[in-house]
Amino acid sequence: MIRQITGQLVSIEQKKKDHIALVEVGGITYELFIPGGLADKLKTMAGQPNKDKKPVPVTFHTIHYLEGSMAGGPIIPRLVGFLDPFDREFFELFSSVGGLGVRTALKAMVTPVSEIARAIEQEDTTWLDALPEIGAATAKKIIAELKGKMAKFALMKDISTIEPIEPMELDIKQEALEVLLQLQYNKSEAELMIQKALTRNKKIKDSEALIAEVFKQQRIDS
Question: What is this structure's pTM?
Answer without folding.
Answer: 0.66
